[in-house]
Design goal:
single chain, alpha+beta, 4-stranded antiparallel beta sheet, 4 strands
């Protein structure tokens, strides 16, 4: 009796146990005390307490299904009491009792296929997590380069404010000498006010992007990280005129071999194939066969009891589940082909986008900004010498300002398109470690 009570208590304790909730450790402000490199940003984002915990729990749950699939079934105990309270004519008790232990001795017929199906699903979940890591890298990289562009816009806007202020001082001085009109002074002040407004807009955008970036890196409070400026690096796969219009076959093949979405689809297809094998082996339900042995006690004495419970497939040959598994397999194979085509489409579109953006930056935006800067300097000297009028001087300054902004936007588009394409090709995947899925 005491042993039964202990067993029941242990059973209840195991069945009702609840794991302790995780202890969250969000990103500390000290982690952002210095300007961040792109590599540091990627590391912080991947190790974000909530994101990393979710990925790990999903993988743990998926791998637990493999353990479940390979679990050895428990035996079944059966105790029967018959003729309790009955007596024969001589008042002799007719009570008898039997105790039998049964076991599905042929359960191993379906277990290997169950393990195969569960393993394939676990692998699919691992690939899904890897796909999310890759998407995260693309998003973090894009946000990083956006912040770099924000910093450049702010720096350029500050230069323009200083230039506009110098211009106002120059015009005011010439107005005092009688060579400029009051309208020229007001127009110069208007240019200065517009430059100051543009600077305020650039700083506000940078602050907003910094705030969103901090939360993306794992912060749970408002922080404003700074990032390390980087030199232009578009054209990872060449953007000159001799570059192929579409990605070469080896690039597409490399992207396919490393793509987690396609790998996940193939794993789910393998799982569906294994599940079909499980259902086919259940057509003749030998795995449900039970063999039992025990004892039987009767008034006349005791003896051994042996049982064999064998399902007879007369009416049901598991046809419905087999057809369902066949349809699921064909559906999974369709999804696999869709995933393959999606990878090809994504790489081709990314290639085109990166080539076009890099060409725009290298061939047009950067040379135009450099040209307009030289033109602005020349216009400033000519204006001071009285060779050109005020309107021409202002227009040259505006052209330089617009070219600077366009160059920053073009650089941002080029490096982001280049980064996203590199991510699609698996160039920015995290290195594999012993704990990597």
């Amino acid at each position: 009796m005491k042993l039964r009570a202990i067993s029941l208590a242990l059973l209840l304790a195991v069945g009702c146990a609840t794991p302790d909730p995780p202890k969250w450790t969000p990103l500390e402000s000290t982690a952002l005390s210095e300007p961040l490199t792109l590599e540091r940003c990627l590391d912080l984002a991947r190790r974000s307490d909530v994101r990393a915990a979710q990925w790990q729990y999903r993988l743990d749950a998926a791998r637990a299904t493999v353990t479940t699939a390979g679990a050895i079934p428990n035996p079944t105990a059966s105790i029967t009491w018959e003729d309790v309270g009955l007596h024969d004519e001589e008042r002799k008790s007719l009570y008898n009792r039997s105790a039998i232990a049964s076991y599905p001795v042929l359960s191993w017929l379906t277990i290997p296929k169950k393990i195969d199906a569960a393993s394939a699903r676990a692998h699919a979940e691992e690939e899904a997590v890897r796909g999310e890591e890759r998407l995260l890298a693309a998003q973090v990289g894009a946000a990083f380069f956006e912040l770099v562009a924000d910093q450049r816009r702010v720096a350029a806007s500050r230069e323009l404010v200083e230039s506009a202020r110098d211009f106002v001082r120059l015009v005011e001085k010439e107005r005092s000498l009688g060579s400029r009109s009051g309208l020229d002074v007001e127009r110069a002040r208007g240019e200065r006010l517009q430059a100051e407004s543009d600077l305020a807009d650039a700083e506000a955008k940078r602050r907003t992007d910094q705030l969103a970036f901090a939360f993306a890196l794992g912060s749970d409070r408002p922080l404003f990280p700074e990032v390390v400026d980087v030199e232009p690096r578009p054209g990872l796969f060449s953007s000159n005129e001799s570059s192929p219009e579409v990605p070469p076959d080896d690039v597409v093949a490399s992207a396919l071999s490393a793509d987690p979405d396609w790998a996940r689809a193939k794993a789910l297809s393998d799982a569906a194939l294994a599940e079909l094998g499980v259902q086919q082996r259940r057509a003749i339900p030998l795995a449900d066969t039970l063999v039992g042995a025990g004892t039987k006690r009767e008034p006349e004495g005791s003896g051994a009891v042996y049982t064999l419970d064998l399902p007879i497939p007369i009416f049901d040959w598991n046809g419905g589940p087999i057809r369902e598994a066949e349809a699921a397999l064909q559906s999974a194979r369709t999804e696999e082909e869709k995933a393959r085509r999606a990878v090809v489409e994504r790489v081709c579109e990314g290639w085109q986008r990166a080539q076009a953006a890099a060409a725009k930056w290298v061939r047009f935006a950067r040379p135009l900004a450099e040209t307009q800067e030289r033109n602005d300097g020349a216009a400033s000297r000519l204006f001071a010498a009285g060779v050109i009028g005020f309107a021409e001087r202002v227009q040259a300054h505006r052209d330089w300002k617009q070219a600077q902004r366009s160059a920053v936007d073009s650089w941002r588009d080029a490096v982001i398109a280049d980064w996203v394409l590199a991510c699609a090709l698996g160039k920015n995947d995290p290195p594999l470690t012993a704990s990597s899925p």
